[in-house]
Design a protein that fits this description.
The protein is mainly α and 67 residues long. It is built from three helices and no strands. The radius of gyration is 12 Å and the shape is elongated.
Length: 67
């Protein structure tokens, strides 16, 4: 079975970006890289569970807010 096209969930990717923007701009979160990596990994796992073939680096490339 072919993997689902990640473009089908572009709105989810946009929402991930909003969450990451809040983390990056928050003065209350010190280790931003760790927080961003965990958020990306969590969404990667959810998308994989739903049948989307995606890696953390590939997902990060689609995001505006990443390092």
């Amino acid at each position: 079975m072919a993997a689902k096209d990640l473009r089908e969930v572009e709105h989810c990717v946009y929402m991930i970006d909003l969450i990451i923007r809040e983390i990056v701009n928050s003065s209350k979160i010190g280790d931003k890289r760790y927080a961003v990596d965990k958020i990306v990994d969590c969404f990667r796992d959810i998308l994989r569970h739903e049948g989307y073939a995606v890696t953390s680096p590939a997902l990060k490339q689609k995001l505006v807010y990443h390092d």
